[in-house]
Amino acid sequence: MTLAYVRTEDAPKRPPPATTAGTWARLRDQFAPTPLSGLATIVIAALLAWTAWTIIHWALISAVWSAPDREACNAVGAGACWPFVKAKALQWVYGFYPIEERWRANLVFLLGGISLLGLLVPQIPLKGLNALFFFLIYPVLTFYLLRGDHFGLVRVDTDQWGGLLVTLIVALTGIVASMPIGILLALGRRSKMPVVRSLSTAFIEIVRGVPLVTVLFMASVMFPLFMPPGVNPDKLLKALIGVALFSAAYMAETVRGGLQAIPKGQYEASMAVGLSYWRMMLLIIMPQALKVVIPGIVNSFISLFKDTSLVSIIGIFDLFNMVQSGFNDAKWASAQTGNTGYFVLGLVYWAFCFAMSRYSQFIERRLNTGHKR
């Protein structure tokens, strides 16, 4: 007789081997799966720790926090000269804008922040009104508030604007203007009309083939030649036009990549239901294309924000130029003045660029971009 054994219940579960489970095993698998990668992890961690400690020691531990002039910052072993930053901070924000009129710049900052918040936060209603205000009313209001000479306001020419105020004006103008221009150029480059396609392609390739510095010099020198005699726009306006056109060329290629990623069936289905070209682009194609290229669009915006520092080459006192001009103050000239100024400048640029990057990731997650449903 053959006896058979049939299990009537599961065997008790055993704990996994200590070498394949637990915190130590996960850390080993991530950072040191092989001896060579483990050594590389140790070396990189040591370099990062040394760099972090050096920065912390310079910026916090050995830093000078209070001083009437440069003497304390010139002491042996002195770190960051924060009194210099405190003394120049307002100038870095407003430039040479008259002190008694800075409330106008503050009002511009406040209105811009509120309207931008209304556009970026999904939970805030009335997006249409916010967009109308931010893209149409706010630029005009900003110009009249800052320049004055109307409604009883004292006139302040753009030569007196500067600092973070000008940096944000150039960056926002470039971002807002480059998007629609870039979309039109991308559509023009894919157009079936030879003239439109050739002109769009020529503009994109020419502008992308030269550095922004060249475009700024051309806008500063050549643009007045196309104006009527006696008309010479101020240099800030010329810089805004140059930055916007330069950024639009790069934006056009980003958008064109998104258009090429849309399946041909989307175009055919849109035409099959009787949509015109512009309705097809507005309602069907463009929303999908822009969704695909969100990372590229935000990358262009980040590059544009950092490139605003180049307007200092044509004599505009943006944030970068204002920080550099502070180094010429004999009262604060010290060995650490330049290091501290550039350190703060880097932090400001990093903060704005990091905020744009994080918001881009938020939008990608919200739209489920690049993920399977």
Task: Give structural notes.
The protein is mostly helical and 373 residues long. Helices cover 66% and strands 0% of the residues. It has 14 helices and no strands. The protein has helices spanning 23-31, 35-61, 82-94, 102-120, 127-147, 163-189, 194-208, 212-221, 235-261, 264-272, 277-292, 294-307, 319-326, 337-367. The radius of gyration is 28 Å and the shape is globular. It starts with 22 loop residues before the first helix and ends in a 6-residue tail after the last helix.
Outline:
The protein is mainly α. The protein has helices at residues 23-31, 35-61, 82-94, 102-120, 127-147, 163-189, 194-208, 212-221, 235-261, 264-272, 277-292, 294-307, 319-326, 337-367.
